[in-house]
Amino acid sequence: MKKQLIGIMMMVSLLLVISACSNGQEVQQPPTEESENEVEMGVAAAQKDGNADAAAEGTGVFMVTAFMDCCPPSVVEDAIAEVEGAGKTDIHVDGSTAEVTVTFDETKTSLDAIKTAVADIGLPVE
């Protein structure tokens, strides 16, 4: 009887996790070479013009391991958006691993702070 009750509780928990993580959003595609070149050209132009705000933009890439297929990338995007200075986020999911590319204002935050925000929602990062 206890095994059946535990089994039912596990099923209910799993269903709650799945329903909490699914909202029907599409997975974003990884950045292309063209978009990466545009970012590099924009930073170079800002440095040339002396625009310190745009020149302080950094880009970081990290991996989220054990990424659950049931959870949309918006969960990670929302966590990153809470970090002051975080900018555009692109997420490429491949099975249970997600590659996260994020731009951020280096005068306000760091890649480590962004990774910590994702780890704080329970997802392991590398």
Automatic annotation (TrEMBL):
Residues 1-24 form the signal peptide. Keywords: Signal. The keyword Signal applies. The keyword Signal applies. InterPro entries: HMA_dom, HMA_dom_sf. Residues 58-126 form the HMA domain. It comes from the Bacteria. This is Mercury resistance system substrate-binding protein MerP. It comes from Planococcus chinensis. The lineage of its organism: Bacteria, Bacillati, Bacillota, Bacilli, Bacillales.
